[in-house]
What does this fold into?
Amino acid sequence: MRIDKYLWCIRIFKTRTIATEACKKGHVKIDDANCKPSKEVYGNELIGIRKNQINYKIKVLDVPSNRVGAKLVDLYRKDLTPKEEFEKTELLKIL
It folds into this structure.
């Protein structure tokens, strides 16, 4: 499955167009390498996503056949984002 479609299917991005634009701008990396929207995604890959000033780290567990419900997202990805990333955004709100 393409990386832009995968990110849309697991509800990282609201639309596939937004996911495609994020890939083109270099906000999405697979194993610390920039990727095109057409890059194929396989299991056990690490994806880095820069969204809303937060650097998300996601591990691919499985590839869904189509967009999944919010309750089923954790079957297809594991969130490895450190808590410090979220704390940085809280500090920015205070300043």
Summary: The chain has three helices and five strands.
